[in-house]
Structure formats: structure tokens, C-alpha cells
Amino acid sequence: MLNLDAIQSLACGGLFLLVGYAIRKRVPLLARLSIPAPVIGGLLVALALLACRQWEVTPVRFDTTFKQPLMIAFFTAIGFNASTSLLRIGGRQLLLFLGLASGLAVMQNLVGIGLATAFGLPPLFGVITGSVTLTGGPATGMAFAPVFAEAGVHGAASVALANAMAGIVLGSVIGAPVATMLIERMKLRTPIGSPRTASAVAVALADEPPASAPRVEEAAYAGLRNFVWLLLAMGLGAWISGGLGQLGLTLPAYIGAMLVGALIRNIDDRHGWFGLSMPTIDIIGNTCLSLFLVMALMDLHLWELSGLALPLLVNLGVQSLIVVAFCCWPLLQLMGRDYDAAVMASGFIGFMLGTTANAMAVMSSLTERYGPATRAFLVAPIVGAFLIDFTNALVITGFINGWK
């Protein structure tokens, strides 16, 4: 058996990340379903190890030491995105949309617990197949998996992957047809004279005015500066998470870093002390996310899913029906019962079952057919991309501490 150390395992993860991108490029269906490239590459390794297990062979063992810091770095970058100025841009509708998403996350967990109990499984099995992997997606699922494993959920990481992957597919398949039905049945159309979506959102969310291209030295220093602020948030956040843990709270390792990142961002928005560049931080965060996911999936034990297929399928069916019903009412009514509300409903299905990428894909397909939906493209991505991660982490933490 080949034992890879931490550096070699990280390099292997990077290699299969590129393999995932190459496969997605050559299989258009994977791109249309918004399947993340890290999931493709990591799952390829996991399936190969599953096949080897049939012959009782373990060809390689990975050292996943870097998995934890990569995961924390990604969620810290999410924290840096939590700007109160964005809340002001979206106004009341953004807060209402976030409240609806957070409320449905609670409902997903309650339904999951009920179904898990009916199948004789631990209540926390219902939480990991609820908002952890549906609202949260594969990143949140893999981040919380060790916590659920310690709480007694057998094969938590494998369950998280299976549920998250199925949710991504369902979010892509269901979102656009449901919104199309609402638009056609209620005769909803885009208001005449609406600005084009992309330009309107770009102006609203711009971090800084366009400028001439900086010199190489300036660009390198700017990247280094933002990377250091992210590392500082991770370091300070570790102390906060440790302190909260001593109070008896079961929290994900990244929650403290997210909070520090949000604090630094909002101080910088007000005073400009840190010179943050959100595009740079997003690049760092997304890179860390990709490497974290592919390494987490490479070390996955898919054979632990044996016997759980029926509970997972039933849960996904029920959860999908609830999300669709929730979008048709009350979300459509509360968000204005207009064309933008219908497009928002499609995005809501996308990220409440899958990821923000699903939401953007299905919303784009609708606007290509029916016209721009500026308000929808302003509200849904802000909530789905990072605000829901904050509230969902609190929801999950509450359920873990209530049922552990």
C-alpha cells in the first residue's frame, strides 16, 4: 500500500481537481447540472477505492492534514463577504428572503429528524440529510461530517456526499420547470424598461471603481495583504471557537473565523483601514474550497452507504416536495407575486436543494427566455452565496446541541 504524506496528498488532490475540470468540460451534462469539478475529481478517486475494496485491496492511503485549514479558509472568505452595505442594497426584500430561507432550513431538519426516526435511525441522521447538505451543499456537509460522526451518525461523510450530490441534481432539474409553470399560469412577465440583469447587479455590487491595471509588484502586494488578513481572521477565530467550545457548545471549527472575517470586512467598509479586495479574497476562498472538497472526497468511504439507500431516497423526495410547495406559497406571495418573485423562486429551489451555482444556472435559463429579472439577481445570489451560510450554521449548531 502506498502511503502519501500531507504534501503529496495535497498535490494528488490538485491533480484530480484538474481532472474533474477536464471531465466536466468534455461532458456537457455535468456542466448543465452544475456539478462542481472538485466533486467529480474526488468522487472518481472514491469510486476507484470502492472498486478496490471488492478485492480487499487498499492501494493508497492519504494524509488529509491540510483538509481542515483549507475548509476554515473557505468559510473565513465567506465571512469577509458578510457586509452590512450589501444588506442595505437589497433592503427589506433581502432580509425577508434570508428569513424565509433560514425558516425552511429549520423545517428541513425537523422533517429529516421525523423521517430518520421513522426508519429507526439517529435523529442527527435527519439533520445531516436536512439543511446541512441541502441548504449547505457539499462544502457544509463535509465540514460538519466529523461532528456528526462523533455524535454517532455512522458513515456521516458518505451520507453527506450522497445527499448533497442528489440535491444538486434535483435543484438543477426542478428549479426552472417550477418557475416556468408559475410564470405561465399566473401570466407573469418582466416589467417593460427593466435594465439588463448583469449590468445592474454589477453596478450595485461593485467593490471599487474601475482603475488602470496595477503594476505587478502592487498586485502581488495586494494579494499578499488580503491573504494575511484572511490568515489573521483564521487565527483569531480559532481562539473564539475554542472559547465557545469550552462553554459546552458544539460548533463547526470555522464559525469563529467567519465572525472575525465579517468584523474585519465591516470595519474596512466603514474606515478603509485594511484595504480589502473582495475579488482577491474570493479567489483565495474558492481555491481553498476546491482543494478541500477534492481531498475530502478522495478519503471518502462509500461502502458505508450500504443499507441507507431507501431512507436517503425517501428523504430527498419529501424534502423536494416541501421546497417546491414553499416556493409556490408562501415565498412567491411574500416576495411580490410578480415575475421577479417567480425567478427568485427558481433560485431558491436551486440553493435550498443544491448550491448557488444551481440557483444562478436556473435563473439565467429563465431570463434568457422571458427577459431580465434585476431584483431576483440582486437578492438570490447574496442570500445563497454567503448569508444563508451564517444562519444555517446557527441552525445546525442548535440542532446538534439539542439532539447530541
UniProtKB/TrEMBL annotation:
Compartments it resides in: Cell inner membrane
GO cellular component: plasma membrane
Protein name per UniProt: Sodium/glutamate symporter
Listed InterPro entries: GltS
Keyword Methyltransferase: no
Organism: Rhodanobacter spathiphylli B39
Keywords of this entry: Amino-acid transport, Cell inner membrane, Cell membrane, Ion transport, Membrane, Sodium, Sodium transport, Symport, Transmembrane, Transmembrane helix, Transport
Protein task: Catalyzes the sodium-dependent transport of glutamate.
Taxonomic placement: Bacteria, Pseudomonadati, Pseudomonadota, Gammaproteobacteria, Lysobacterales
NCBIfam families: gltS
Main location: membrane
Bilayer-spanning residue ranges: 6-23, 30-50, 70-87, 94-119, 125-148, 160-183, 247-267, 273-296, 308-332, 344-364, 376-400
GO biological process: L-glutamate transmembrane transport
Pfam families: Glt_symporter
Domain of life, source organism: Bacteria
Keyword GTP-binding (UniProt): no
A GO MF label: glutamate:sodium symporter activity
Annotated family: Belongs to the glutamate:Na(+) symporter (ESS) (TC 2.A.27) family.
Topological category with respect to the lipid bilayer: Multi-pass membrane protein
